[in-house]
């Protein structure tokens, strides 16, 4: 464990030095940390030996997911959801549960898992990650409604998938351990803390007795997040639902706090995400990748190229979304950080199928990171009508336009 900090610092420095190149090419920072963890872990070099039951695994996963859900919630305040609910609403209301079900069917019939474990895998793999579609979301040549769709969907579906993960995990743990009343109370307390704490903090700052200075203003939302985390721990409320609700509440009632914290918060969340990806990579060994067998790899590929595309196609039937936009939305359903942490939570849960579930989730995420992070630039260029084209294509297009305008072709 002593090697974790220097390993993270070294890979982080390398990622910073390569970040400009990564923004222009298929190189992915997330893939860099995943591969680095794989190489440094027990299965290859053994420099960074990490076991699933190590305390750092659960602690880092918990903090990372809390930070990510908190910042995700800030991207999608109620105002944004009201303005752009139609297309994201289809993706979340139909696409998310359909992706869950199609993935579960694949896990049940291809791998032979029980239905509860299959539904658990479906819930873990249903959220999407905006990081791997960054080139698409940030490209102004991409239609705004597609960028808004992917951004809102990926910001919300982590939190929406969470209750499904918790319920299916509780059921998989056995009837003796299943207490739906306690689970409901845990989720309810999480929502209450996530809404009440930031609302009270923002209202307090607006009174005549208090005012945050410019230098300390970015720390306001950080303090709110830490207080939500502490109260969630003390009351046993669901931390992740509390984080997501807190982010939405800050975005809704504290626009100034949201803007001042945005860049700072994203950096904090990014550090936790990259550290968790490094640890996740270290838990993946050549033996694990080989142990899933051909059926596991077929499931992983089908989860990427069938489950999400089918769900998106059904979700957008009758919509005005163009074919290219639907194709891009269908492909960019990358399995990212939330799925990583949900997989780690299941691994540490002790359920009978924990190892098998984690293996299937792991190979699917590995395939997704490698495929999606290396194709976002290519798909973004698909929408770039101003990109350079061969001279012969330009002349041909000019002649076609000339005919359309009634001109005599040259």
From TrEMBL:
<feature type="transmembrane region" description="Helical">
    <location>
        <begin position="267"/>
        <end position="288"/>
    </location>
</feature>
<keyword id="KW-0050">Antiport</keyword>
<dbReference type="InterPro" id="IPR038770">
    <property type="entry name" value="Na+/solute_symporter_sf"/>
</dbReference>
<keyword id="KW-0812">Transmembrane</keyword>
<feature type="transmembrane region" description="Helical">
    <location>
        <begin position="183"/>
        <end position="202"/>
    </location>
</feature>
<feature type="transmembrane region" description="Helical">
    <location>
        <begin position="238"/>
        <end position="255"/>
    </location>
</feature>
<feature type="transmembrane region" description="Helical">
    <location>
        <begin position="328"/>
        <end position="351"/>
    </location>
</feature>
<keyword id="KW-1133">Transmembrane helix</keyword>
<feature type="transmembrane region" description="Helical">
    <location>
        <begin position="91"/>
        <end position="112"/>
    </location>
</feature>
<keyword id="KW-0406">Ion transport</keyword>
<feature type="transmembrane region" description="Helical">
    <location>
        <begin position="214"/>
        <end position="232"/>
    </location>
</feature>
<dbReference type="GO" id="GO:0005886">
    <property type="term" value="C:plasma membrane"/>
</dbReference>
<feature type="domain" description="Cation/H+ exchanger transmembrane">
    <location>
        <begin position="14"/>
        <end position="375"/>
    </location>
</feature>
<keyword id="KW-1003">Cell membrane</keyword>
<feature type="transmembrane region" description="Helical">
    <location>
        <begin position="357"/>
        <end position="379"/>
    </location>
</feature>
<keyword id="KW-0813">Transport</keyword>
<keyword id="KW-0472">Membrane</keyword>
<protein>
    <submittedName>
        <fullName>Sodium:proton antiporter</fullName>
    </submittedName>
</protein>
<feature type="transmembrane region" description="Helical">
    <location>
        <begin position="32"/>
        <end position="51"/>
    </location>
</feature>
<dbReference type="GO" id="GO:0015297">
    <property type="term" value="F:antiporter activity"/>
</dbReference>
<feature type="transmembrane region" description="Helical">
    <location>
        <begin position="149"/>
        <end position="171"/>
    </location>
</feature>
<dbReference type="GO" id="GO:1902600">
    <property type="term" value="P:proton transmembrane transport"/>
</dbReference>
<dbReference type="InterPro" id="IPR006153">
    <property type="entry name" value="Cation/H_exchanger_TM"/>
</dbReference>
<feature type="transmembrane region" description="Helical">
    <location>
        <begin position="294"/>
        <end position="316"/>
    </location>
</feature>
<dbReference type="Pfam" id="PF00999">
    <property type="entry name" value="Na_H_Exchanger"/>
</dbReference>
<feature type="transmembrane region" description="Helical">
    <location>
        <begin position="118"/>
        <end position="137"/>
    </location>
</feature>
């Amino acid at each position: 464990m002593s090697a974790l900090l220097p390993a993270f610092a070294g890979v982080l420095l390398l990622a910073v030095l390569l970040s400009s190149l990564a923004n222009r090419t298929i190189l992915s920072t997330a893939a860099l940390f995943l591969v680095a963890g794989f190489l440094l872990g027990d299965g290859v070099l053994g420099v960074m030996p990490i076991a699933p039951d190590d305390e750092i695994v659960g602690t880092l996963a918990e903090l990372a997911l809390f930070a990510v859900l908190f910042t995700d919630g800030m991207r999608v305040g109620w105002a944004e959801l009201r303005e752009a609910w139609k297309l994201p609403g289809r993706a979340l209301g139909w696409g998310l549960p359909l992706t869950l079900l199609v993935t579960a069917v694949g896990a049940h019939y291809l791998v032979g898992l029980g239905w509860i474990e299959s539904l658990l895998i479906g819930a873990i793999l249903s959220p999407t990650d905006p990081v791997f579609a960054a080139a698409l979301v940030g490209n102004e040549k991409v239609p705004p409604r597609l960028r808004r769709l992917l951004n809102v969907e990926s910001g919300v579906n982590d939190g929406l998938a969470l209750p499904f993960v918790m319920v299916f995990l509780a059921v998989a743990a056995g009837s003796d351990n299943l207490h739906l009343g306690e689970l409901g109370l845990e989720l309810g307390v999480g929502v209450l803390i996530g809404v009440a704490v930031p609302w009270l903090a923002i209202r307090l700052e607006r009174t005549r007795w208090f005012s945050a200075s410019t230098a300390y203003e970015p720390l306001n939302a950080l303090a709110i997040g830490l207080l939500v985390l502490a109260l969630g721990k003390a009351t046993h409320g669901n931390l992740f639902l509390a984080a997501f609700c807190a982010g939405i509440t800050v975005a809704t009632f504290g626009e100034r706090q949201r803007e001042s914290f945005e860049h700072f918060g994203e950096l904090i969340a990014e550090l936790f995400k990259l550290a968790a990806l490094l640890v996740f990579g270290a838990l993946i060994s050549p033996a694990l990748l080989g142990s899933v067998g051909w059926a596991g790899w077929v499931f992983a590929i089908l989860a990427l190229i069938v489950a999400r595309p089918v769900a998106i196609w059904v979700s957008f039937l009758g919509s005005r979304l163009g074919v290219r936009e639907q194709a891009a939305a269908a492909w960019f359903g990358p399995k990212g950080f939330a799925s990583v942490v949900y997989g780690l939570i299941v691994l540490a849960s002790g359920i009978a199928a924990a190892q098998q579930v984690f293996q299937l989730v792991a190979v699917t995420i590995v395939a997704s990171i490698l495929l999606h992070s290396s194709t976002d630039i290519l798909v973004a260029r698909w929408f770039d009508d101003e990109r350079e084209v061969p001279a012969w294509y330009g002349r041909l297009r000019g002649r076609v336009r000339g005919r359309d305008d009634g001109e005599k072709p040259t």
